[in-house]
Design brief:
Length: about 110
């Protein structure tokens, strides 16, 4: 069974950090580009970041560039998103997905609030 399971979300104060993880199973994780997308309350989904299958290339939306870092450990079948300098507007459910959107996790909620 193909699974993507996100973890690491929670409530954090503005300016603080969180690290999200996404554990993959049931498919050849290391063969896929992977990405993070998010959906804020009442808004549509938006792309956050993508990493190539080997982890060499990374891409970021302008609104997270310089604050978020995507990474992966193919030996552990895990994708990460390090989020620093969090802002209230980063509040959203964060999903990991394959680059081709054929697989997506259930999401983890990040709330940035004082």
């Amino acid at each position: 069974e193909v699974q993507l399971v996100e973890s690491g979300g929670g409530l954090v104060q503005p300016g603080n950090s969180l690290r999200l993880s996404c554990a993959a199973s049931g498919f050849a994780f290391g063969s896929y580009d992977m990405k993070w997308i998010r959906q804020a309350p009442g808004k549509g989904p938006e792309w956050v970041s993508t990493i190539s299958s080997g982890g060499i290339s990374t891409y970021y939306a302008d609104f997270v560039k310089g604050r978020f870092t995507i990474s992966r450990d193919n030996a552990k079948n895990t994708l990460y998103l390090e989020m620093n300098s969090l802002k209230p507007e980063d509040t959203a459910v964060y999903y990991c997905a394959t680059g081709d959107d054929t697989r997506r996790g259930q999401g983890t909620l990040v709330t940035v609030s004082s």
